Amino acid sequence: MGVEEGGRRGGIPVRADSAGSVWVSTERGSHLRGRRVRDTKPEVMLRSALHALGLRFRLNRILAGRYRPDLTFPGPRVAVFVDGCFWHGCPRHGASRFRGPNAALWEAKIAANKDRDVRANAALAETGWRVVRVWECEVKADVQQAACRVDALVRRAGSAPDGAPAD
Ligand SMILES: [Zn+2]
Fold this sequence. Notes:
By secondary structure, the chain is of the alpha+beta class. The protein has helices at 27-33, 41-52, 103-126, 136-141, 143-159, and strands at 58-59, 71-73, 78-83, 130-135.
């Protein structure tokens, strides 16, 4: 009946969720299932632009026990997330409504991602990290500007007195 078990590479849950709903395979969804979750094009573009500004950072470090920003600057304690417009519900490019058999599940999935983003911001702030979120579309529109936004925060944070606890 078009239902697959066990999920696949790419992190799309293809399984029954706790409410007993199931994802139905659709042609439209299949291209999303194999997507890369790391080293996405916007991430790579932003990294290059930051490197060009002379910034050095670490990749995919786990902070506050469970969150994995795309880039971290350990000294000034700045964490950067590059958020995909679709997955994180960009106000300009996120889907405003979903259609098809999985509509409610997609809506719940994106809402859950956004909730997680809010929790990540709070958890990281609590452990003394400054969080900057950059939309995929910002990077694509003007990577220099996005890089300058990160650069400004890193410099400001690096010069501020830091009484934050270590993670
Ligand atoms: Zn966007």
